[in-house]
Amino acid sequence: MVDMESHRKKLKRGHEPGHFHELTFSCYRRKPLLTNYAWRRELAGLIDAACVEAEFDLNAFVFMPEHIHLLIYPKTDMLRIGRFLARFKQPFSRHVREILVANHSRLLADLTIRERPGKTCFRFWQEGGGFDRNLYNPEAIEA
Question: Among the four 28, 90, 93, 127, which has the fewest Cβ within 10 Å?
Answer without folding.
Answer: 127
